[in-house]
Design goal:
The protein is mostly helical. The chain has one domain: MetI-like (MetI-like fold, Orthogonal Bundle), CATH 1.10.3720.10. It contains twelve helices and no strands. It has helices spanning about 10-15, 20-25, 30-45, 50-85, 90-105, 110-125, 130-135, 140-165, 170-180, 185-215, 225-235, 240-270.
Length: about 270
């Protein structure tokens, strides 16, 4: 009797296929996220006073931190793309301006930049005859300046990431696109940038996680984020240990969750070169 040309493939055979291993289908580090979440829940239920009070008090600050991070990151992606293209420009003036921007911004601490945008920038506008309250409503002024300061700072670093990603694409790709009749901008949009974006996803994801952590600095410019709400509760209750344990765990939950999402996106968009 002839042997079956289509043998049954079992679980062991499937696991030998690259990319089909059980561990590759689910990030094993999700257990760490679950562990931290369980730790927060355990603290809240085992010792509701003060941990439950702390969680309730800082809960609105969590939303502010996430909102500032997401809005800033969207702006950073735009600034980084423009800056990266400017750093690759053959026009000396454009190249010089964007290079100056990157070098100057990277040389000033982020906290100093945030304070400058919050305190000094409005004075410059006033001296120029522009009333800041006309441009930005007073109730969102602090958040707007925080987003602007974070975006300008992180935009400089993102510009270098975009530049490195674009330069990693072989020159033959641009030459082939131009030989097909595409303009420079069409070639960048349809050929170069789609490949570059997939290459720079890991460092871009790391920038998002770093931005989420650095968003705690906006508490220095009157933004009621998670860190500022934690400071307010500590000043009110005189419980620094319990307050900062809870705040640290909440930041850890957000950063670990963001890292797992970034890893999932990287896995879905990964391609063999």
């Amino acid at each position: 009797m002839d042997k079956n040309p289509f043998p049954t493939v079992g679980p062991k055979e499937i696991s030998k296929i690259p990319g089909a291993e059980p561990h590759s289908r689910l990030d094993p580090w999700w257990w760490l996220v679950a562990l931290v979440v369980v730790s927060v829940i355990a603290l809240v239920f085992i010792q509701p006073d003060p941990f439950r009070r702390i969680l309730v008090f800082v809960s609105d600050g969590i939303g502010v931190s996430i909102l500032v991070t997401v809005i800033t990151f969207i702006v950073v992606l735009i600034i980084g793309l423009i800056g990266g293209l400017g750093r690759l420009s053959h026009n000396r003036i454009v190249f010089g301006l964007f290079t100056l921007y990157v070098e100057v911004i990277r040389g000033i601490p982020l906290l100093v930049q945030l304070i400058w945008w919050y305190y000094a920038f409005p004075i410059i506008l006033q001296q120029a005859g522009i009333e800041i309250s006309v441009l930005i409503p007073r109730d969102i002024f602090a958040v707007s300046m925080a987003v602007l300061g974070l975006a300008v700072c992180y935009g400089a670093y993102m510009s270098e990431i975009y530049r490195a990603g674009i330069q990693s694409i072989p020159k033959g790709q641009m030459e082939a696109a131009r030989s097909l009749g595409m303009t420079y901008f069409q070639a960048m949009r349809h050929v170069i940038l789609p490949q570059a974006v997939r290459i720079i996803l890991p460092p871009v994801g790391n920038e998002f996680i770093a931005l989420l952590k650095d968003s705690s600095l906006v508490s220095a410019v009157a933004v009621a984020d998670l860190t500022r709400r934690g400071r307010e509760f500590m000043a009110m209750s005189f419980l620094p240990l319990q307050t900062w344990i809870m705040v640290a765990l909440l930041y850890l939950v957000m950063t670990l969750f963001a890292a797992r999402i970034v890893g999932w996106i990287e896995k879905k968009t990964k391609f063999e070169r």
